[in-house]
Amino acid sequence: MTRDDRKSAVPLLQVRNLAKQYGRRIGCRDVSFDLYPGEVMGIVGESGSGKSTLLNAMAGHHAPDRGEVVFDTRADGPRDTLKMSEPERRMLSRTDWAFVHQHAREGLRMSVSAGGNIGERLMAVGGRHYGDIRAQAADWLGRVEISESRIDDRPSAFSGGMQQRLQIARNLVTGPRLVFMDEPTGGLDVSVQARLLDLLRGLVREMGLSAIIVTHDLAVVRLLADRLMVMKDGDVVESGLTDQVLDDPQHAYTQLLVSSVLQV
Amino acid sequence: MIELENVSKSFSLHNQGGAVIPVMERVNLKVAAGECVGLVGASGAGKSTLMRLIYGNYLAASGRILVGDLDVARAAPRQIITLRRETLGYVSQFLRVVPRVPALDVVAEPLLAVGTDQDRAREKAASLLAELNIPERLWSLSPTTFSGGEQQRVNIARGFAYDYPALLLDEPTASLDAQNRATVLRLIEGAKARGAAIIGIFHDEAARNQVCDSFIDVSAFAPQVAA
Predict the structure, then answer these.
(1) Which chain B residue has its CA at the smallest distance from A193's CA?
(2) Domain with B188 in it: what CATH number?
(3) Do residues B108 and B208 both lie within one domain?
(4) Closest CB to B81 among A198, A205, A226
(5) Which has the minimum average pLDDT: B66-70, B93-97, B211-215?
(6) Do B105 and B16 share a domain, yes or no?
(7) Would you tell me how many other CB atoms lie within 10 Å of the CB of residue B130?
């Protein structure tokens, strides 16, 4: 199965004029874009530029003031997720959607074993056979390079990098089609980051995932994202092919951002 | 296969007093299938810039850049992504890879991207690495730790793994010894023979004369107006 097989003329996600304000302050303003199956889009900008607000609004974590987030559902084709009922949206976020938080603790149950963390998502979509669930959990621990012998340990006994990989396993076990990621490599050592990036890239390719990755790390988007959106003060100031935006930035802010990166 | 019409390029530096630096004007060129065109001109004349424009890495200010039937100057990102996967290969001067990925997989990647099965992709990658004299004990290691010359050869192997109908080669023979240089020239000739349209930059004059059918002096595209 390659990315081509899933490629079609219908965007997986269509975001239209999405806007969110906090009182008089602007979170994000009139953001529109299409994301096609198999595409990975990066959103970069400094803290407070609105990138996390946008991500959370798309993922349904908080309601935007206006706009549409149309997702190509398996059953009924394109539907505006903001108009879905709460149970429908929750079902979506357990099956076709996944959300990887910056801090693994927010995405994991710290008092439940590693295996239980992965198994919970399977049970949420109807998995009942204990043996099958445990076998899948073990398989996924292997895929994110956590030893199977840790399956009964709680994530609180894991290192930061392991917690992050466990969070990814928990999210991907149900075979989602769209993954939202908020600074997935933030706060990790560079060596751990490289491993995680490699892992994510492999999974994106194998599973034909689409992903939206918010980060302030330009090196991360260069490696992971096909396309890039640059945000400043709630507006998208530039978007395009990742390497084109980074190598030939057009907007003043993007030029500043790119030229501010320290060379190693 | 590749056709440029009246292409121009300038850079606007917003953070340096809004300076606008025109770098190229009225670029016209045409490369047919099975043909190799060499870009010549002094260092800084814009040879690499022209290549990056064709690859969609730089945005053209005006004109048309046709690769196959896609106008790169106006294409949407996902059209360019497809073009790069299926039609247009680019061997740059520097290898950029994800840390930790073994050399063999780096080379096999373009094949996997078009749906070749793992075994066949790896087989082709292995034969290219062997042909380019990368010792087999290095194949399972990440090329980030390789010497400059080895990285360059991994980069070339990657560029030739899949049979792109069009290829951009930026100094493919730089920093290679005589034997590897001959291998690269043979790969280029093989690509021409199967009908690839190639644009190359070669500082090595003998190499240039061996594989190129014609030359284009990029200095002719320098903007006329003195700044």
Answers:
(1) B99
(2) 3.40.50.300
(3) no
(4) A226
(5) B93-97
(6) no
(7) 13
Percent with pLDDT over 70 in chain A = 96
Question: A244–B115: do the CB atoms touch at under 8 Å?
Answer: no
Q: Is the pLDDT reported for residue A2 higher than 50?
A: no
The pLDDT, as a whole number, for residue B121 is: 96
- Could you give the ipTM of this predicted complex? 0.89
Q: Do A241 and B77 touch (CB under 8 A)?
A: yes
Instruction: Test B58 with A244 for CB contact under 8 angstroms.
Output: yes
- Indicate if B3 and B48 belong to the same structural domain: yes
The verdict on B173 and B138 lying in the same domain is no
Tell me whether A139 touches chain B (CB under 8 Å). no
Smallest CA-to-CA distance from B191 within B31, B20, B3, B19 is with: B31
Q: Do A227 and B114 touch (CB under 8 A)?
A: no
Task: Look at B58 and A252 and tell me if their CB atoms are within 8 Å.
Answer: no
CATH number of A3-96+176-259: 3.40.50.300
B174 shares a domain with B155: no
A6 near B CB under 8 A: no
Residue A178 near residue A211 (C-beta atoms within 8 A)? yes
Segments forming the whole domain that contains residue B18: 1-87+164-227
In a mutational test of the A interface, the residue from B9, B13, B15 whose CB has the highest number of chain A CBs within 10 Å is B15
B9 & B105 share domain? no
**A8 falls in which pLDDT band (50, 70, 90)?**
low
Q: What pLDDT, on a 0 to 100 scale, did the predictor assign at position B225?
A: 60
In chain B, which ranges are continuous DSSP H helix?
47-55, 77-86, 103-113, 118-131, 148-161, 178-193, 205-211
Residue A197 has pLDDT above 60, yes or no: yes
| Domain extent listing, chain A | 3-96+176-259, 103-162
By C-alpha distance, the chain B residue nearest A190 is B99
Burial class (CB in 10 A: 0-12, 13-18, 19+), B117: exposed
- A192 and B CB contact within 8 Å: no
Tell me the chain B residues in contact with residue A3 when contact means C-beta distances shorter than 8 Å: 113
Residue B226 has pLDDT above 60, yes or no: no
Pick among A207, A241, A254 to test the B interface (most B CBs inside 10 A): A241
What's the helix, strand, coil split of chain A in %, to 5?
A: 40, 25, 35
Grade residue A6 by pLDDT with cuts at 50, 70 and 90: very low
- Say if CB A104 and CB A186 are below 8 A apart: no
Q: Do B157 and B170 fall within a single domain?
A: no
Phi then psi dihedrals of residue A52, to 5 deg: -70, -35
The reply to whether B103 and B116 lie within a common domain is yes
